[in-house]
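Lab meeting, item 3. Inverse folding demo.
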């Protein structure tokens, strides 16, 4: 049986190589092994830790292969994670993840790694999907703010969905009608819930009806939390749902209000509204995102904000999340 190592927090692990060593396959493979098996090697089928080394992987001499003494399954350092089954080396994957964290477009990533744009898009999409699937759902308390934004998102890269709309694909940017809209009208609403001084949660919605937002708010915001919103009527039932609801009326030019007379304007939604400019800047390099993929971009943006890291520190968090059980 392999000797087990001590526990470590996956997201807090540091990627144990320097940035300029990302294209060294041996060092990158060792780094992946160190992060993935930080709590000891376990079988990817039965989770048993009664495993032994079994040579090296056919894919690379730097990847260790193992055999489970309980179920006889053979696996290696990459089994069961997004790198598995790919003919690209781990150093290409890790460099691509680093570029994704820097928010480079698929075209830029393809040029830097000498990939076709289709291959780069498939790889970055799999990274964003994995992050979206694995990110934790925050439970917000204290003072939270709710607001919604509307992102123009058609069916870029999905010709079948365009044909179902009975129209030709657009050669220029999709134009969205001003004001509130729906997913069906290709301008889906995004609900943002931010805790002041804490995390943010983002959700793409089909519409902004009360029946749509109620289960989300109940699952994300702890009961009894102070919730600030604007004057939009969908938030009028927050008091009935168990929250302390305060709102500002943007229609009359009110953006912050001091209710207790201490000189501090504590009633506002400026925190979450500030995220919309950051989100739009995050999406801008991609020249339009389809509504099929928009949740994955939102998930990555949410994760990057909530871990509060950039550069190599962000790479460590991304890789730790992607290789975690």
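The presenter then showed the designed sequence:
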């Amino acid at each position: 049986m392999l000797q087990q190592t001590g526990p470590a927090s996956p997201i807090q692990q540091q990627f144990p190589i320097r940035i300029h060593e990302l294209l060294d396959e041996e060092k990158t493979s060792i780094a992946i092994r160190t992060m993935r098996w930080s709590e000891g090697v376990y079988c990817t089928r039965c989770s048993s830790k009664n495993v032994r080394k079994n040579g090296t992987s056919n894919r690379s001499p730097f990847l260790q292969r193992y055999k489970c003494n309980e179920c006889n399954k053979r696996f290696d350092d990459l089994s069961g994670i997004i790198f598995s089954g790919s003919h690209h080396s781990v150093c290409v994957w890790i460099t691509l993840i680093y570029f994704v964290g820097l928010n480079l477009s698929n075209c830029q990533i393809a040029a830097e790694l000498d990939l076709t744009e289709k291959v780069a898009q498939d790889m970055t999409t799999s990274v964003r999907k994995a992050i979206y699937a694995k990110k934790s759902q925050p439970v917000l308390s204290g003072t939270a703010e709710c607001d919604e934004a509307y992102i123009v998102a058609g069916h870029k890269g999905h010709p079948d969905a365009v044909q179902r709309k009975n129209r030709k694909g657009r050669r220029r940017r999709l134009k969205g009608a001003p004001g509130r809209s729906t997913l069906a009208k290709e301008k889906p609403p995004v609900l943002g819930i931010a805790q002041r001084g804490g995390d943010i949660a983002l959700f793409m919605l089909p519409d902004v009806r009360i029946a749509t937002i109620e289960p989300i708010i109940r699952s994300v915001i702890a009961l009894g939390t102070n919730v600030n919103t604007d004057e939009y009527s969908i938030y009028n039932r927050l008091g009935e749902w168990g929250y302390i609801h305060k709102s500002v009326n943007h229609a009359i030019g009110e953006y912050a209000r001091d209710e207790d007379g201490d000189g501090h304007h504590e009633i506002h939604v400026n925190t979450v509204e500030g995220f919309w400019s950051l989100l739009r800047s995050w999406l801008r390099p991609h020249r339009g995102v389809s509504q099929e993929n928009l949740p994955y971009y939102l998930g990555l943006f949410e994760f990057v904000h909530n871990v509060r890291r950039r550069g190599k520190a962000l790479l460590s968090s991304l890789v730790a999340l992607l290789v975690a059980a």
